[in-house]
Write a sequence for this structure.
């Protein structure tokens, strides 16, 4: 109930709400009738992603860094704040770990005070360079604790630890999702991730940069499918805390992805090989049995269709200069 004594929908906080996934989530929550507060420090997120919703009467944005405490009153929290692409999370690795760890502590503290349900955007990176394939949730991972990806991988692992300790110790209602590579409109065109890099390169007819020999694999989930899973997970019974893998189990090598994008765009780009970055996982594919069972969810948009929906977004950005 609010001060007007009428029932309203939930007040939902989205940290990292100006980013790629966060902006889609804010849009979906507004469409579902909720009151949405977006918190972001705009490190990788941008107000451009929020333009379609910025004037919505039930939408607010606050510039804030989650490594500092936040005092607001909300019913649900989606904690997405953290740079996700390797070039961005490696730019200031200490800040990346702080964002995951201090950010989790601050958001969990907030959730505890206001008794909110809290969702954590964890990642397939908690499995590191996996020696079990595909990866089920009970696999503990194979992670380098001191490499160039560790600030992100170990930061996210520590955040999971904090979530489960708050759950056990303070009975907090938590939802931990392990997200696998996701793509779609609102990705940052220069964030260095493979889908955005390849589409931008193909649209410019520039060489497609394959790191290593391109035999490493990834599974690519279209953003709308992922956001549907977020909502179902948050709405699922409290005794289902996760962790749950969310991703598309269709697995492709990076070379296959490059060829598909060239084909769809009709580009004249050629493939060139560049050195493979350190600790780059050789394969990654989610086992989504648990998500199917508990959430009745599986992706519905396969790679070719998702790319067809994504390419026009990058065309528009490039044509705007
Ligand atoms: P993104 O970089 O587009 O969005 C992250 C957002 O967090 C940005 O808006 C950024 O400005 C904000 N942010 C970063 N540090 C912050 C801080 N200290 N305080 C407040 N805001 C801060 O990335 P994304 O792809 O939208 O990822 C969102 C979340 O999902 C991240 O936590 C990421 O680790 C996770 N995730 C994403 C993927 C994927 O494929 N996109 C895969 C696994 C996990
Ligand atoms: N990759 C590539 N060329 C690029 C960008 C990325 O070959 O221009 C490779 C990268 O080395 C990795 C895969 O594509 O093997 C996915 O990279 P991304 O950064 O998108 O995600 P992550 O490695 O975190 O899964």
């Amino acid at each position: 109930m609010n001060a007007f004594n009428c029932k309203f929908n939930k007040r939902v906080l989205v940290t990292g709400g100006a980013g790629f996934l966060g902006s889609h989530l804010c849009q979906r929550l507004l469409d579902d009738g909720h009151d949405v507060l977006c918190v972001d420090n705009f490190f990788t997120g941008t107000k451009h992603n929020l333009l379609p919703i910025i004037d919505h009467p039930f939408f607010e944005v606050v510039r804030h860094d989650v490594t500092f405490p936040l005092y607001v009153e909300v019913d649900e929290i989606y904690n997405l704040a953290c740079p996700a692409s390797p070039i961005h999370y490696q730019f200031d690795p200490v800040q990346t770990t702080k964002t995951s760890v201090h950010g989790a502590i601050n958001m969990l503290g907030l959730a505890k005070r206001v008794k909110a349900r809290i969702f954590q955007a964890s990642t397939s990176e908690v499995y590191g360079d996996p020696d079990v394939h595909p990866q089920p949730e009970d696999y503990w991972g194979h992670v380098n604790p001191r490499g160039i990806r560790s600030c992100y991988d170990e930061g996210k692992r520590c955040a999971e630890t904090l979530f489960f300790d708050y759950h056990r110790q303070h009975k907090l209602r938590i939802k931990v999702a392990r997200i696998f590579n996701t793509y779609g409109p609102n990705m940052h065109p220069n964030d260095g991730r493979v889908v955005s890099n390849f589409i931008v390169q193909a649209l410019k007819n520039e060489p497609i940069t394959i790191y290593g020999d391109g035999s490493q694999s990834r599974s690519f989930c279209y953003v709308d499918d992922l956001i549907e899973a977020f909502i179902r997970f948050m709405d699922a019974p409290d005794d289902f805390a996760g962790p749950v893998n969310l991703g598309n189990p269709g697995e492709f090598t990076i070379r296959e992805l490059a060829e598909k994008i060239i084909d769809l765009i009709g580009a004249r780009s050629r493939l060139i090989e560049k050195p493979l970055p350190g600790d780059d996982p050789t394969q990654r594919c989610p086992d989504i049995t648990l998500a199917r069972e508990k959430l009745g969810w599986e992706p519905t948009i396969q790679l070719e269709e998702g790319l067809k929906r994504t390419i026009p977004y990058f065309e528009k950005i490039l044509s705007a200069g």
Remarks:
- The chain has one domain: 11-320.
- Residues 11-320 form a domain with the Rossmann fold fold (CATH 3.40.50.720).
- The longest strand covers residues 117-123.
- Residues 128 and 143 are 4 Å apart (CA to CA).
